Amino acid sequence: MTPSSFKDGAYLLVTALACAGASWLAFAFFGEAVFYGLFGLSWLALSLDNVRLRRQLRRLQDGRKP
Q1: Which of 11, 26, 35, 38 is the most buried (most CB within 10 A)?
Q2: Which stretch of DSSP H or E encloses residue 12?
Q3: Is the per-residue pLDDT at 2 higher than 80?
Q4: Separation in Å, CA 50 to CA 1, 20, 41
Q5: Average pLDDT over residues 49-66
Q6: 27: number of Cβ within 10 Å
Q7: Is residue 48 a contact partner of residue 55, using CB atoms and an 8 Å limit?
């Protein structure tokens, strides 16, 4: 069962409109403080990914499967 390209385009358009609306609301209510929140979330995500990759590297160096 393959989705049609029309359906894909419609889903993409709905997703884009939802993201645009969410960003407009965030900036309308919180102003420039949104940048601090996005920076914090990005920093947290990168830190967690770094921890995960360090653990995986340690496992690979020990000869175990990830």
Answers
A1: 26
A2: helix 5-30
A3: no
A4: 38, 30, 14
A5: 88
A6: 13
A7: no
The residue type found at 27 is F
- Sign of the C-alpha dihedral, residues 7, 13, 19, 22? negative
Please work out, in degrees rounded to the nearest 5, the angle formed at the alpha carbon of residue 15 by the alpha carbons of 10 and 21.
125
> What type of residue is 35?
F
Residue 66 has pLDDT above 60, yes or no: no
Q: How far is CA 20 from the centre of its chain?
A: 15
Q: For the chain, how many residues are written?
A: 66
Digit-coded pLDDT (tens) for 11-56: 999 999 999 999 999 999 999 999 999 999 999 999 999 999 999 9
**Spatial contact of 66 and 59, defined as CB atoms under 8 Å apart:** yes
